[in-house]
Amino acid sequence: MSDRSFAADPPSPPGLEGVVVADTELSRVDGAGGRLVIRGFDVEDLAEALRFEEICGLLWTGELPDANATERLRAGLARGRALAFERLPRLGLALALDDPMDALRAALAQLLDGPVAEPELRLLLTGAAPVFAASWARGRVRREPLAPDPALEHAEDALRMLFGERPTPARKAAFEAYLVTVAEHGMNASTFAARVVASTRADSLSAVVAALGALKGPLHGGAPGPVLDMLDAIGSPERATGWLEGELAAGRRIMGMGHRVYRVRDPRAAVLERALESLEREGIRSTRLSLARAVESAARDLLAHRAHTRALEANVEFYTAVLLDAIGIPRALFTACFAMARTAGWLAHVEEERRRGRLIRPDARYVGPEPAQRRERALAGAA
Ligand code: COA
Asked: Are the beta carbons of 162 and 134 closer than 8 angstroms?
């Protein structure tokens, strides 16, 4: 093994773009082809067929769970929801924080009194997220939190705790499709954060808390709320081009457009659009779908005419905003819904990272002053 220092090398590309940091069996994000493969299945097929319990099973074990395994997962996630609910009186001000992602992070950080072994811990962490998100949202309108129902499937209970009544089958199916679609997506920023923490041999809860912090940012999971704000600000299709031109002229990014890896339209955008169409067939019409399509088309045209070196197309967050809004979820909770789903993916990566078992500890090239320069400067100052 060489003992040379890497610290003199030029740094990797900004944002580690194109740098492969791990082998993974979890998913392949094909940026040129616009394809997402999760454990050997196309995301389109998974979104149509799976419940949230089943994508958890697939991610955590590598195989689609059979009926018995799915039932065990359902019961395990229900245990997580129950534990989180029991925990509510002891969370202090966590769920009173203004930002729902801050609240979710603070509450999850206090979920456990002591160590819990895997795989139970995975179930508890994944089960807890919707309880905290729903309790936060109900607290904003001075409503009491609703206890989870251990007999229900996870997606259905998540919506029930939020709305105060069981969702219609169409809403449940749409939310389930959303959760499955966004549960896993390669080495995104929050997953990388979770893997860095896992590589230090810290517990899974710490990895999830770190990932939540990364997910919150508007360049990652924080985009869908602002997408809905944008649609509201535009209001009607004929205003789209002018409004977007104003944003670009002011140097602002169009939320929901562009992606680090995809050079074509994010395949998950189409999956979520299809979920919106299914909702429409069930009589739940999104007032914003046709506007969103017009805004996407105007944004794509405008961005194509700018001097970017890459194509900028709609990403998953664009239609996340429209779908979650059509289901009836308040926009403040969009990123928390993302977290509910992605926790499953983070925890699968945490496990994979643990198997690799090597601390992630890259290097940085020092470009600050040397001691001799400091001394020279001090002498010059004294002269
Ligand atoms: N609106 C306007 N311009 C955009 C843009 C957007 N949404 N996304 C990228 N660009 C521009 C950049 O300003 C840059 O311009 P330049 O070449 O003139 O400097 C160029 O496109 C390349 O962008 P870059 O910053 O290299 O892309 P990235 O890989 O770092 O960023 C995102 C990827 C997702 C962070 C970026 O596209 C973005 O900010 N999108 C909006 C936020 C969003 O939807 N996030 C959710 C992601 S799933």
From this structure: yes
Tens of pLDDT, residue by residue over 217-245, are: 999 999 999 999 999 999 999 999 999 99
3-state helix, strand, coil in the chain (%, to 5): 60, 5, 35
> What residues does ligand 1 touch, defined as CB less than 6 Å away?
15, 219, 223, 253-260, 303, 308-310, 312, 315-317
Annotated active-site residue in 317, 349, 351, 353: 317
Q: Whose CA is nearest to atom 17 of ligand 1?
A: 308
Q: Pick the atom of ligand 1 nearest to 318's CA.
A: 44
Q: Is 185 a catalytic site residue?
A: no
Least confident range from 9-18, 83-92, 341-350: namely 9-18
> Does the active-site annotation cover 259?
yes
243 CA to centre of own chain: 28
The tokens of 296 are what? 């996407």
Q: Is the pTM of this model over 0.85?
A: yes
Residue 130: which of 99, 163, 98, 97 has the closest Cα?
163
Q: Which residue type, as a one-letter code, is found at position 302?
A: L
Name the residue type at position 266: D
